[in-house]
Amino acid sequence: MKIVESIADIRAALAPHRGARSIGLVPTMGAFHAGHVSLMRASRAENDMAVVSLFVNPSQFAAGEDLDRYPRDPARDAAVAAEEGVDLLFAPAAAEIYPAGFQTWVEVERLGRGLEGDARPGHFRGVATVCLKLFSIVRPDRAYFGLKDAQQAAVVDRLVRDLALELELRVLPTVRDADGLALSSRNAYLSAGERAAALALPRALAAGLEAYEDGGDPVEAAAAVLAGEPGAAADYVDTLALNGATVLAAAIRVGETRLIDNVVLEGDTP
Ligand code: PAF
Fold first, then answer.
1. Residue 270's pLDDT is what?
2. What is the per-residue pLDDT across 32-62, written as a single tens digit (0 to 9) for each?
3. In CA terms, which of 77, 169, 215, 245 is 20 to 30 Å from 38?
């Protein structure tokens, strides 16, 4: 596996393969877990060249969020990516992505509002901008995202359609630990007690899905479960249309940590 840090170097590394070999891109912020690995494996299986980007994107963190303490372990990440057969790991410095004078931003308007968009002002503007920049640098045939960030997947899907980007968006199922907690780099922040409280999140979503299947109100059912867990404070519980699918999504705070998760109520995700 080759590690490249500049746009010029990744373009040079990909140039001989363009047109002849398909390219898969997994955009990440590192701190790899089994969710990232599932994206890497799909990309490896479906493309000739597997590219992973590793960039903790400052513009998608709102003021006062966890940018500074976001888990970073580039050596371990490189080992995991190499083990998964990744061909190129693109790990740029912030100045490479946001050079001096940078002032071009992408806003996905309606889908970027509500839920995470309201809770984290500027978040999806940062996500959409960095994704478009990564797509423009790598020019992948397919790009891989996890359904755990359902609104993000919807925003990127809209971006790809609206700007007629020539790539296929692949959204893969959420990977969970045995206790049901969706894998997230932020789970590393949780103490044992906080982790126990965080399990109210998948429990609430399961209760919402069950209520929905019984003809009830999924939001009410999920909110009731969260209200019963003193260690977790609900940020929001709501439904979200994601192209052909409807998901029930929630965010909670456990101590200093904010976690999100969702379940598909009906339909197929993109
Ligand atoms: O899901 C993430 O890790 C990030 O939001 C992404 C897509 C890599 C953009 O920075």
1. 63
2. 999 999 999 999 999 999 999 999 999 999 9
3. 245
The total of other beta-carbon atoms located within 10 Å of residue 253's CB is 14
pLDDT of residue 92: 98
**Catalytic residue selected from 17, 33, 36, 123:** 36
Q: State which of 97, 108, 149 you would mutate to test the pocket of ligand 1, scoring each by most atoms of that ligand within 8 A of its C-beta.
A: 149
185-264 is classed CATH 3.30.950.10: no
Q: Is the CB of 130 under 6 A from ligand 1?
A: yes
Q: Which two tokens stand for residue 34?
A: 């089994």
Q: How far is the CA of 27 from the centre of ligand 1 (A)?
A: 6
Low-confidence ranges of the chain (pLDDT < 70): 270
Q: Which of 120, 152, 186 to mutate to test the pocket of ligand 1 (most atoms within 8 A of CB)?
A: 152
DSSP tag of 176: B
Closest C-alpha among 242, 160, 254 to residue 200: 254
132 lines ligand 1 (CB under 6 A): no
Domain locations along the chain: 2-172, 185-264
Contact (Cβ atoms closer than 8 angstroms) between residue 22 and residue 47: yes
Q: How far apart are CA 10 and CA 91, in angstroms?
A: 10
DSSP state of 180: S
Is residue 120 within 8 A of residue 62, CB to CB? The reply is yes
53 lines ligand 1 (CB under 6 A): no
| CATH annotation of 2-172 | 3.40.50.620
